């Protein structure tokens, strides 16, 4: 159950939100049932984190993946093939990556996510009535705080959600 909650907070919820913000219709309930069921069945074999990968979803749905939204599925298919190859050659890839300077790896990750982060921040801060809650969510998540063994992605969603409810209630009053 704890892994399910962590996966929901750190991968599934942001992945669903990213796809929905880009105009894709996401069948949330069937996906949660499917990923949760597969994780339950496969966790005894070490496959415990089956999820909607938030970062992959964000990268594959962006205009950089393909100008035509109807053809962006090709990016997801290519990512799937890449993940299979990464699984097969994981040991070799790990050895290669450990030989590279950490700053270089961090730079590549940052560059890969730059468009996604800027687009997400623009959308999150675009609605004035939701801006404060979005900032709380972002700052708590970016802080890296861990409470009770649960990471900042979960606490960012919780505190951002609480902020949104409180601020919305205060605005209506």
How would you describe this structure to a colleague?
The chain has 173 residues and is mostly helical. It has a domain at 1-89. Helix content is 74%, strand content 0%. The protein has eight helices and no strands. It has helices spanning 2-21, 28-42, 54-61, 73-88, 90-99, 102-126, 131-143, 152-172. The longest helix has 25 residues, at 102-126.
Number of distinct beta strands: 0
Overall 3D shape? globular
Helix content: over 70%
Strand percentage: under 5%
Structural class: mainly alpha
- Tell me the span between the first and last alpha carbons: 38 Å
- The radius of gyration over CA amounts to 18 Å
Q: DSSP helix count?
A: 8
Poorly predicted runs: none
The overall pLDDT, averaged over residues, is: 87
Largest sheet: none
User: What's the SSE pattern?
Assistant: HHHHHHHH
Keywords:
173 residues, mainly alpha, 74% helix, Benzoate transport protein, membrane, Benzoate_Transporter, transmembrane, transmembrane helix
Strand-helix topology:
Layout (H helix, E strand, L loop, with lengths): L1 H20 L6 H15 L11 H8 L11 H16 L1 H10 L2 H25 L4 H13 L8 H21 L1
Report a brief summary of the structure.
The chain is mainly α and 173 residues long. It has helices spanning 2-21, 28-42, 54-61, 73-88, 90-99, 102-126, 131-143, 152-172.
């Amino acid at each position: 159950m704890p892994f399910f909650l962590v996966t929901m907070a750190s991968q599934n919820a942001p992945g669903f939100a990213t796809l929905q913000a880009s105009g894709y219709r996401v069948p949330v309930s069937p996906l949660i049932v499917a990923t949760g069921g597969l994780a339950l069945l496969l966790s005894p074999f070490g496959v415990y984190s089956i999820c909607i990968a938030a970062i992959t979803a964000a990268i594959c749905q962006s205009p950089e993946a393909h100008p035509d939204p109807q053809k962006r599925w090709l990016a997801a298919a290519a990512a799937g093939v890449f993940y299979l190859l990464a699984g097969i050659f994981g040991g070799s890839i790990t050895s290669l990556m450990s030989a590279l300077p950490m700053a270089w790896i961090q730079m590549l990750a940052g560059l890969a996510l730059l468009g996604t982060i800027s687009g997400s921040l623009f959308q999150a801060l675009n609605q004035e009535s939701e801006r404060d809650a979005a900032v709380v969510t972002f700052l708590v998540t970016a802080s890296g705080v861990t409470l009770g063994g649960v990471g900042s992605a979960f606490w960012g969603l919780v505190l951002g959600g609480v902020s949104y409810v409180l601020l919305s209630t205060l605005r209506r009053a």
